Every structure is written in C-alpha cells, then in structure tokens.
Amino acid sequence: MHPLDNVIWKALTTNQAHFAEISDLARRFSPEISLLGAIEQPTAKAYDSLARLIGTKPVGLFLEEPPLMPAGWSVESGAPMLEMVYEEASIASDSRLTVAPATQFVDLSAAESPQMMTLAKLTNPGPFAERTHELGTYLGIYQGMRQDRKVVAMAGERLRSPGYTEISAVCTHPDHLGRGYAATLMKELLQRIDARGEQAFLHVRTGNTRATELYRRLGFRVRVQLYYAVVRFDGN
C-alpha cells in the first residue's frame, strides 16, 4: 500500500487522531472541523460503524471509485478528483507562472474564521468549516484598509499523516484572480512543509483545469484518481 492510500483514515489514526470521533471501523472529524470521515475498509460492517457514528448527518468520503452504497445509504453529491503529490520546485523554470512579488501574507486563526468561511463559500475549494483552520497552518492575503480589510486569498494544511501534509482550501476571490496569490501562498506552504521533512500533496476536482495546471507548474504530479462523495445514512 502507498502511504497515502485511504489517507483520511491514516490521518485520523495517526497525526490527527486527537481530532477523531470513533466508532469501531469508522472515524470522522468533528463536524465543526471538517465534513470528512473514513472507514477502514469498504465492508458492510465498516458502513454499519459509520452509520452509528454519523447518525443522520452527512459525511464526506474519499473513495477509490464511485460508490455502490449498502442499503439504507444515499449519495448527496460526488465528483471525481485527482490526488497530486509534490515532486520538485519548478516555479523558477516556468515563465508562465505568476508569483506575486513581495506579497504580505499572514497566518490566519480563529479571528479570521468568518472571513475564511465567506471566501470558501464563494469559491468552493472543497469542504471547509468554522474550525478547519485548527488542522494546520492557514495563510491569507488581505486587501483594504486595516479597519475593513478582507481576506481575498488563502491556502492551508488539512490532512496530515506520517511524512505527508495536504495543502487545501486554495482559493482566491474572483475580483483578485490573476495576481499570483495562490502560487505565492502555496510556495510558502511548500517551503514550510519541506522544512519539516514532509512531502506535500493535494486533491483537486478533475474538471478544475485552471487549478490543476497551476499545481503541475508548481511541481505536483498526479498519483491517482479518486472519487469524493458526500453520503448519508437514511435507513436501518
């Protein structure tokens, strides 16, 4: 098995076990932290564990293929996605990649959570909750005067398992696209992850060609295609 196989389960049983809610063969993050959860193996017994864990609430799963759910389950939404792993720094060699010069970014915290939620809802980079920022470092770029400044771009760390950190919630307000903010934030995160002796990875929807091309230019390669599904248990 690759270290990133079933990566949500890996995270919730290792580096991020302290965030886990547990029921036998199932794990999930507390809902205010993340929608994500996982089962050890796609078996009926594991799905029974997950049903006991989530009750009537939805949960987001990373699956190897579109789900064939057991009786009593429904799929609320889903989409194929790519898992990409960082291999090498390619920023300097790609003249097409815009990196914002001397951009001032800040570490985001609970005080900025409402603005982070607003930006995530507007741009839909993936599941994001009011306490997602607690999972790792989140960086942001502000615009505006100090008293009314707004977070217009952000990126951060979500899943963490031994030797690996996921970059997630990479998003920019539509009014500020094309200025190199995403590349700037990701470059800083990549440097911090590398300094810890870890390897960065990320997930992106297969249809998001703009983001996928940016990640390729930054030095990421596709490891595998997965399927993201939001599922709910409806029956007994």
Structure report:
The chain has two domains: 7-82 and 227-233, 3-Layer(aba) Sandwich (Aminopeptidase); 83-224, Aminopeptidase. A hairpin with a 6-residue loop joins strand 7 and strand 8. The strands form two sheets. An eight-stranded mixed β-sheet has the order 4-11-5-10-9-8-7-6, with helices on both faces. Strands 1-2-3 form a three-stranded antiparallel β-sheet, with helices on both faces. With 236 residues, the protein is an alpha+beta fold. The protein contains five helices and eleven strands; from the N terminus they run αβββαβββαβββαβαβ. It is globular and about 50 Å long. 23% of the residues lie in helices and 34% in strands.
Lay out the secondary structure.
Layout: H1 7-13, E1 20-23, E2 26-29, E3 37-39, H2 44-54, E4 59-63, E5 73-86, E6 105-107, H3 113-123, E7 138-143, E8 150-161, E9 164-172, H4 181-195, E10 199-205, H5 209-218, E11 220-233
Parallel strand pairs: 9-10
Antiparallel strand pairs: 1-2, 2-3, 4-11, 5-10, 5-11, 6-7, 7-8, 8-9
Tag the structure with descriptive keywords.
single chain, 236 residues, alpha+beta, Aminopeptidase, 2 domains, 8-stranded mixed β-sheet, 5 helices, globular
- Tally of distinct domains: 2
List segments where confidence is low: pLDDT < 50 over at least 5 consecutive residues.
Answer: 91-95
Proportion of strand residues = 25-35%
Number of helices: 5
Distance between the termini: 33 Å
CATH topology of the largest domain: Aminopeptidase
Short recap of the structure:
The protein is an alpha+beta fold and 236 residues long. The chain has five helices and eleven strands, in the order αβββαβββαβββαβαβ.
